[in-house]
Amino acid sequence: MSRLLYTLVATTLVVAPGLTWAASPPGAASCLGCHTVAAEGGPVPALGSFTAEQMVTAMQAFRSGSRPATVMNRIAKGFSDEEIKAIADWYARSKSK
Amino acid sequence: MAAGGVLAAFGIPAARAATKAAPRVVVIGGGFGGASCARLIKGEDRDITVTLVEANSTYIACPFSNAVIAGLRPLEQQKFGYDRVRAAGIEVIHRKVTAVDTKQRTVRLDDGKQLAYDRLVVAPGVELRFDAIPGYNEAAAEVLPHAWKAGEQTLLLRRQLEAMKDGGVVVMSAPANPFRCPPGPYERASLIAHYLKTHKPRSKLILLDAKDAFSKQKLFEAAWRELYPGMIEWVSLSSGGNVTRIETDTRTFVTEFGSHVADVGNVIPPQRAAAVAALAGVADQTGWCPVDPVSFESTLQPGVHVIGDAIIAGGMPKSAFSANSQARVCATAVVDLLRERKPASPKLINTCYSLVAPDYGISVAGVYQPANGLLTDVPGAGGVSALDAPKSMRAQEATYAEAWFKTITHGVFG
Ligand SMILES: Cc1cc2nc3c(=O)[nH]c(=O)nc-3n(C[C@H](O)[C@H](O)[C@H](O)COP(=O)(O)OP(=O)(O)OC[C@H]3O[C@@H](n4cnc5c(N)ncnc54)[C@H](O)[C@@H]3O)c2cc1C
């Protein structure tokens, strides 16, 4: 199989070639139950479309309830500031790879 | 399990240590859990040989199969193949596993072939218990379908609803916990009621339950009052909902308090981990599989990991979303253990959407972490959709449900 095909196929699950889940912070993998990393235009935003700061701000606003949400308010409450920051940094890094 | 336990369970079989061959992982079951896990292991480390054994060449997904029953969606949209899983470098074998030897670390297939593994992932889903309700066996399911494994059964229930006269009575029964997809029976009752309301408005649905409470209950009941007034009658365990016998010739559901004759009947029987779990020695006396919540390694069989519907997951419900979340954590842990690293403590998410009507979605979400040997709810997180949410939010959740299905099936099979 060609390397290109492998890379195309693998990216949906692997995030970015060269960046492995082994080093990912707790919870990061579960985001991809609903979100993708690369934009695909559905109603659920792609995680790759945010900077780390934007993601931290959004998650904190979901958690405090200051930003209205359907589901993210309930999920954000399961993560501490440190965990949110680690996840946001990790996705920001995965994008730049 | 303590971290030491995880490390102690790690072992390289003699054959592999001698040859230094690439590590081999065999995954049993190509559903939301197993197919995800196989791809993630391969994606994480190309040098690992990954073999996926799945009985069927076409996977028929259960999420959204209730919409098929209600005539809102063709079954074709539920079908997925394994071409892209193969293209990801995984050997996919369409065979049934008939034996697992955890000492020799081999898996036997129904053509007699043997596969050796260094680590095994068991993701076989559930088996419907045809020994649990007297009168309800596989033959009875041809008359009163379960439709709890998507496919012909889904279509059978659909056809029966289509053939039913206006004014008919649909009787459903739901099992006690734990079972696959806790909100599933109530989503099904809702969507069948939607079909009845639009096509056979004088009909009625009775839902006999072996429980006194169910998932997203307040939301479902409020929606039923609003959308299907007088159409759905839920009979709780304490009001006589427990089905003690099924009589197929008269389509009768016998309960502790009386009996209900159905024009169309749907029995959702009690369940256990699929048979291969017992063959592999990873199921306990409950019929389900205890696992270490960090690595998803069986607490009964070192070197064997179990994910998805088959496990005792603590707070996590048996859902496709959970199976996929667990697959991600398990894949990383399997690679870590093969590479002699200690898996880190994970956090997992589940979100289950249910459709009460095509444009009316509700959800339950949770965040989980290992505690006391189980996956435990992170306090303060999760919960269900707001009871007083506006119509627009219900519509939004319905679009999220559809988007979730697209994203997850694309990730697993696309
Ligand atoms: C009506 C209904 C609606 C649902 N809706 C939702 C929903 O909206 N959201 C959600 O998240 N979940 C939903 N679910 C639940 C979801 O379908 C399951 O939780 C999910 O399929 C579990 O995945 P799994 O990988 O554990 O098992 P499965 O998906 O069942 O996969 C197991 C696979 O293993 C194979 N297998 C078993 N034994 C062997 C063997 N011996 N050899 C070879 N292969 C074998 C089987 O053929 C099967 O393909 C719903 C379920 C139902 C019934």
Please give the largest β-sheet of chain B. 5 strands, parallel
Task: Name the CATH homologous superfamily of the largest domain in chain B.
Answer: FAD/NAD(P)-binding domain
**Oligomerization category of the chains in this entry:** heterodimer
How many runs of DSSP E, i.e. beta strands of chain B? 25
- Greatest interface and its residue counts? A-B, 34 and 53 residues
Radius of gyration of chain A: 14 Å
Terminus-to-terminus distance of chain B: 35 Å
Explain this structure:
The complex is a heterodimer of chains A (97) and B (414). Helix content of chain A is 52%, strand content 0%. Chain A is an all-alpha fold and 97 residues long. In chain A, helix 3 (52-64) packs antiparallel against helix 5. In chain B, the strands form 8 sheets. Chain B has a 5-stranded parallel beta sheet, with helices on one face. A 4-stranded parallel beta sheet of chain B has the order 13-12-11-17, covered by helices on one side. In chain B, strands 22, 23, 24 and 25 form a 4-stranded antiparallel beta sheet that branches. Chain B is α/β, with parallel strands linked by helices and 414 residues long. Chain B starts with a helix and ends with a helix. Chain B has helices spanning 3-9, 14-19, 34-44, 65-69, 83-87, 152-163, 184-199, 217-227, 275-279, 320-338, 391-413, and strands at residues 24-28, 49-53, 59-60, 79-80, 91-93, 97-101, 106-109, 114-116, 119-122, 126-128, 169-174, 204-209, 232-235, 243-247, 252-255, 259-261, 264-267, 271-273, 289-290, 304-306, 311-312, 348-357, 360-371, 374-377, 383-384. The A-B interface holds A 1, 5-6, 9-10, 12-14, 20-22, 24, 26-27, 29-36, 42-44, 70-71, 74-79, 83 and B 36, 39-40, 42-45, 84, 87-89, 321, 324-325, 328-329, 331-332, 335-336, 341, 344-351, 363, 365-367, 369, 378, 380-383, 385, 393, 396-397, 399-400, 403-404, 406-408, 410-411, 414. Bound molecules: flavin-adenine dinucleotide. Flavin-adenine dinucleotide binds next to helix 4, helix 10 and strand 22 of chain B.
